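Blinded run. Sample ID left blank on purpose so nobody reads anything into the name before looking at the predicted structure. Input follows.
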Amino acid sequence: MNVRRRHISTVAVTAVAALGFGTLTACSSDSAAAGDTGTFDVVASFYPMAFLAERIGGEHVHVTSLTQPGQEPHDLEISARQTAQLEEADAALYLKGLQPSVDEAIGQSPIATKIDAAELTALEEHGTEAGHGEEHGHEDEHAHEDEHGHDHDHEGGDPHIWLDPVKYAEVAEGVGKAFQKADPDHAADYRKNTATLVKDLEALDEKFRTGLANRTTDVFVTSHAAFGYLAERYGLTEEAISGLDPDTEPSGARVKELQKIAKDDGVTTVFYETLVSDKTAKTLAGDTGLKTDVLDPVEGITDHSRGEDYFQVMEANLTALRTALGAR
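Blinded prediction complete.
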């Protein structure tokens, strides 16, 4: 382990946390981001991983997120500077299968502690098979090559595990154990912080269970298939305009299919998200006489987010779902 013991004040760490974890990348250009911090240096792939690292690590960690606030995580290309940050860090926390360039960079880095969130909980198949599935003739979009030539292959399962509070808690527990092993001097604090975070996630799970218990429909329409785990956890059916990758364009047949689903299942709302274009969602809503609203996949926190951290945005999602599904 290469924990650096240079000085960093508790006040400074607290100030970063107070700004909201989505702003973590603002310090990426200074020397602290390259590992010169005096704390346990963690490079996180994108916001949900950075959030875990900050909550579990507390004052003992310095977290740098590879994905800038407002950047769509699927589109991330690792820079030479970020590769150097990885080489200087004590640990990398990422979610294999979501960001190909991150997977490649971490795989090739000499970093001692590599924590893959996908190995800390069971991944499942969602996306184009979610909801009504093959009975409507969805085509397979598990593999998608982006403009940079990366193959976005989700055959290992849907990576959007953080949108299920129960699965996210399982990941948190695994991250906590990894931190304890990598930085044993602060193991007691990591253990305590992990327990607190898991308790908060259990409370969020209960809010979703009770909040969605009495509803008039189970079906909701989203711009991309990010909410498969959430839907499965609470007995809902997600119908996505595009697949697991948000930049996949829907076919004309899929749009017509969604129009029929909306009519048959009493759908009131087409959800779009903050980090990708809302054009297709608003066009579909306009053609079918439906409302639009935001259902945030919490892939990054920006000024447009309905909250300053994971919990606030997830509670805003619950409010939006309750309205759309007619929950009482």
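Unblinding after everyone has recorded impressions. The first strand starts at residue 40 and ends at 44.
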